[in-house]
Design brief:
alpha/beta, 5-stranded parallel sheet, two-stranded antiparallel ribbon, 8 helices, binds adenosine-5'-diphosphate, binds thymidine-5'-diphosphate, Thymidylate_kin-like_dom, ATP-binding, EC 2.7.4.9, nucleotide-binding, Thymidylate kinase
């Protein structure tokens, strides 16, 4: 019997504090004896990293942007995520599909239903039987680092050079945050909302608590 893989995604607006905790959580999960694959979206494969650099730096219309995100995801799923889960590894991913719904859907106002159609095309798993219907690859847990956009902007000021998304106004990030909220309401049990408006140590405790309560660390 193969061990079951574990898939955890990290989400939130830019500057919410996700990246600060990814490596530490990876270390905790490694401590349970699992191999950890630490990755990110858009990106995670040579092709997807090229698509990332286009999506983050070139001007384009919202449909092109959404298609690039899903094209990068498709390659990432096929080359990295699915093989890792099949081996029984833990995949820790800095952003996944919820970011597309939040940024392209919420932030850009791109059609939610079209994103759902693309999600089904890109993330469907081979069905075990016809009766079992189409299953989609989704994270086992999504840690949503929730922070008011004004606080995130303060944290990011001077921290790094802004890309096409990070240079957006606060109203854009309010809409992204609402996108995450909507996405969580559609599948609440998959999400743990982490109050990111606390000290690093308190946020870390909340992250550990969410993963520990599921028996994974
Ligand atoms: N709890 C916190 N309190 C204050 N600053 C923080 C906190 N967590 C992270 N930061 C800082 O905020 C900035 C953005 O954090 P980062 O982890 O890069 O965010 P993200 O990956 O979500 O964009 C970094 O400079 C980081 O050091
Ligand atoms: C995965 C994904 C990311 N994004 C955006 C969110 C971020 O602003 C940007 C890159 O994400 P991120 O890796 O968090 O940026 P950084 O390395 O600067 O912390 O891409 C989308 O718009 N849609 C998506 O589907």
């Amino acid at each position: 019997m193969t061990a079951q893989g574990l898939f955890i995604s990290f989400e939130g607006i830019d500057g919410a504090g996700k990246s600060t905790h990814v490596e530490a959580l990876a270390e905790r999960v490694r401590g349970t004896g699992r191999t950890v694959v630490l990755t990110r979206e858009p990106g995670g494969t040579p092709l997807a990293e090229k698509l990332r650099s286009l999506a983050l730096h070139e001007a384009m219309d919202p449909l092109t942007e959404a298609l690039l995100m899903f094209a990068a995801r498709r390659d990432h799923l096929q080359q990295v995520i699915e093989p890792a889960l099949a081996r029984g590894d833990a995949v820790l991913c800095d952003r996944f599909t919820d970011a597309t719904f939040a940024y392209q859907g919420g932030g850009r106002g791109f059609d939610w239903q079209t994103l759902s159609t693309l999600e089904r095309m890109v993330q469907s798993l081979p069905s075990v039987s016809e009766a079992s219907g189409v299953k989609l690859r989704q994270p086992d847990l999504t840690l949503w680092f929730d922070l008011p956009p004004s606080t995130a902007a303060e944290r990011l000021a001077g921290a790094r050079l802004p890309d096409r998304f990070e240079s957006q106004p606060i109203t854009f990030f309010e809409a992204v945050r609402a996108g995450y909220e909507r996405r969580m309401s559609e599948d609440p049990s998959r999400f743990a909302r982490v109050d990111a408006n606390q000290s690093r140590e308190q946020v870390w405790q909340a992250v550990c608590q969410s993963v520990h309560s599921r028996g994974w660390i």
